[in-house]
Amino acid sequence: xxxxxxxxxxxxxxxxxKKSLKCEQHLGHNAMYWxxxxxxxxLELMFVYNFKEQTENNSVPSRFxxxxxxxxxxxxxxxxxxxxxxxLYLCASSHGVKREKLFFGSGTQLSVL
Amino acid sequence: TQxxxxxxxxxxIQEGENLTVYCNSSSVFSSLQWYRQEPxxxxxxxxxxxxxxxxxxxxxxxxxxxxxxxxxxxxxxxAQTGDTGLYLCAGENAGNMLxxxxxxxxxxxx
Lengths: 113, 110
Description:
The complex is a heterodimer of chains A (113) and B (110).
Chain A: E1 4-7, E2 10-13, E3 18-25, E4 31-37, E5 44-50, E6 53-57, E7 64-70, E8 73-79, E9 87-94, E10 103-104, E11 108-112
Chain B: E1 5-7, E2 10-14, E3 19-24, E4 31-37, E5 44-49, E6 55-58, E7 61-65, E8 71-76, E9 85-92, E10 98-100, E11 104-109
Parallel strand pairs in B: 2-11
Antiparallel strand pairs in B: 1-3, 3-8, 4-5, 4-9, 6-7, 7-8, 9-10, 9-11
């Protein structure tokens, strides 16, 4: 029980598909994050939500659309992705916006064909 | 843009050996975190160092924050196969921005 659960663990999709990644945290945290982890690149922050409100969008292409219906759930909707979007997508949560301790999920390994 | 460089990128050693990995930047950080990520899992926080010159020990792992709060090191004594994984450092600045290094991938062979 990691406290942050991501589904699915693996996803293969074509460039014209629409899919969604789901993240749920059971830690009572207020902030949630989406990170992208590619080979040979540092973790890239994509989006930050604090109390359900988006507070950061790091110039992420619009084919990635986040949704945060409440402080415990975070989604990443995917549409018309490119092969270079293939990566491990990690969800994380923290107690507050001061990122002293991030709790990560196990990630969704995404392959775009 | 703040950058954190980790070295070495890859390290393969035998069980029982000692090793040190480094995390360097030209920027000052208010705190620095070390994570370990095992295959198929997300990163897990090992330690946070806050004060320049601070040394923290976690069993066989020793973490040091540089005096100027620009760099850090992780030393593992008598490595075990369970230490295998990707070690990530992450620096937090005063604006609560967290920057990750590229990681050191450690393989400890039996």
